[in-house]
Amino acid sequence: MVRFKNDDSAYVGRYLAVVADGMGGHAGGNVASASTVLDLVHLDSNVHGTEALTVLADEIQAANSLLSELVTTSPQLSGMGTTVTALLLHEQQLALAHIGDSRAYRLKDGRFEQISIDHTFVQRLIDEGRLRPEEAEVHPHKNVLMRVLGDVDASPELDLATFDVEPGERWLLCSDGLTAVLRDSDIESVLRSTPNLQECVDTLVELTLAGGSPDNVTVAVIEVDEDLDAGSAQATAPLSEVPSGENEYRKAAVAAAAPPETEEGTARDGTENPAAADDADDAENERERAQLIRQDLASRPHVLVGAASLATETGEIPIVTKRSAERRAARMLTHKAETGLPEEDPAADRPRTGWKRWLLPAFLTVVALLLAVAVWLGYTWTQTRYYVGSYDNRVAIYNGVSQTLGPIRLSHVTDISDIPVDSLSEYHRNRVEDTLPARDLGHAEEIVTELRDTAKAVLCPPVEPSASPTPGSATQGSATPRAEANNACGGEQ
Questions:
Q1: Residue 28 and residue 24: Cα distance in Å, rounded?
Q2: CA–CA distance from 204 to each of 211, 218, 252 (Å)?
Q3: pLDDT digits 0-9 by tens, 15-68
Q4: Among 300, 205, 324, which Cα is nearest to 12's?
Q5: What pLDDT is stored for residue 170 in this prediction?
Q6: Dihedral Cα 242, 244, 250, 252, nearest 10 deg
Q7: DSSP-assigned states of every residue in 69-94
Q8: Among residues 255, 190, 188, which one has the least CA distance to residue 217?
Q9: Best CA proximity match to 1, nearest among 306, 263, 210
Q10: Local structure of 362: helix, strand or coil
């Protein structure tokens, strides 16, 4: 099965391993998984102290908030989400955070077991005793997820746990593309019988693809370093083996999920693609942002695959590349502020002379000017937007965006129609109160016209013809019911 895109993302480093399986199809499953994984990779260090599990949980919640922000700025991504299964090593303990149906398995002291619990509808039925495990495989709703990261829940419930680790134990993280085809016994057999991590990952992926996997498949096999000791936290796996194994995974994943190639600027049906021309100006910026992220990742040994790798290597998921670069810059500034300036030498108390005296003020001035320009450009852009909303119980056209920046409103009324909001149907009234975005002023006027027709349809139901009046039954100056209805709806008598 060849899929148009890979919705999975994964990262394996010295202290951190993450697998995320995006959902939302064309709407943005790859955006959700890539954004989440790239938000977590900065945790790949040994500076978390005894609060590793708390730090991991907090960062996943922060990644969830970012997904909600992405949906707010890009409504076409509404409904996207992702699973997350992550391990963070600190000294002799692994912190596990999990949500969704990606899985974590452990092979330790000769015992193989599934550590994570699927957050699916069928698993809930199994836990309640209403379904047998063997029946879950053929249940029509076996893929329905009960918990994921995304724009559905502002504070999703994570499964959190901490495990003592020993040198030589193995962990396997995977998306459901693997478990949809291979049984746990098959996975266990490969994990036990294959000493080399590369061959282990390679074999699992090949067996999955040979079994006709209906989904992207992502596998990360991690082995605790034999050099782990009480005084230091070492790699979650020998990094001489992990990259080669993961690279083999990547090759197999591309075979299962690579999109068909198309010529640049041309749609799949052969017609000219104007969007490609419009985005050409931004391509260089996206490549530069991707390069900044790659430089940050290059500071630590790691393997990055799937949609997250696509975003950082090519910038082809620009919304992820842009947000990840922004968050990295903000994180660096925050880290510097928390660290503070180094202790100054006593000679520093002497007045600075020459150009050094003006270096800091000049730098701050340039930064202030750049911020002012950025704010001005952002505000200017908002004034090119329009939307339809309500004003004083009337349908109105606004210029700007419906958000506010502190006490500053980023929109103002440009036209107030004669359409009472109360005259609309409940459906259209709710849409107006939630605001209807428009491409430009003309589009906004078209929306108002459609709402006016809707209001007339609500106020003017069809009038049944009345019986012919008998002579003398109507007094002079009185109007028939039909005439009254016509007058109320603006019709002719």
A1: 6
A2: 11, 10, 10
A3: 999 999 998 755 688 899 999 999 999 899 887 767 899 999 999 999 999 888
A4: 300
A5: 96
A6: -120
A7: HHHHH-GGGTT-EE-EEEEEEETTEE
A8: 255
A9: 210
A10: helix
Please report the pLDDT score of residue 26 as a whole number.
Answer: 57
Count of all residues that appear for the chain in the document? 493
For CA atoms 476, 478, 482, 483, the dihedral sign is positive
Taking a C-beta distance cutoff of 8 angstroms, is the pair 71, 77 a contact? yes
**CA trace torsion 364, 366, 372, 377 (10° rounding):** -150
pLDDT, mean of residues 329-347: 46
Separation in Å, CA 171 to CA 153, 341, 402:
29, 41, 48
Q: Which two tokens stand for residue 135?
A: 């029946």
pLDDT interval class at 329 (50, 70, 90): low
Q: Which residues contact 273 (CB under 8 A, 6 or more apart)?
A: 265, 266, 267
Contact 206, 182 (CB under 8 A): no
Q: At what angle do helices 197-210 and 242-257 cross, to 10 degrees?
A: 10
Matching residue, tokens 């109320």: 488
Amino acid at 394: R
306 DSSP β-pair partners: 9
Are residues 153 and 176 in contact, defined by beta-carbon separation less than 8 angstroms? Answer: no
Which pLDDT score is estimated for 332? 52
Burial level of 127, CB count in 10 A (0-12/13-18/19+)? exposed
Distance CA 445, CA 442 (A): 5
Flag the least confident range among 62-66, 361-365, 366-370.
361-365
Residue 253, token pair as written in the block:
């994943």
Q: What is residue 271's predicted lDDT score, i.e. its pLDDT?
A: 33
DSSP 213-277: -SS---EEEEE--TT-BTTB---SS-TTTHHHHHHHHHHHHHHHHPPPP--TTB-TTSSB-HHHH
Residue 402 one-letter amino acid:
S
44 burial via Cβ count (<10 Å: 0-12, 13-18, 19+): buried
pLDDT interval class at 406 (50, 70, 90) = confident
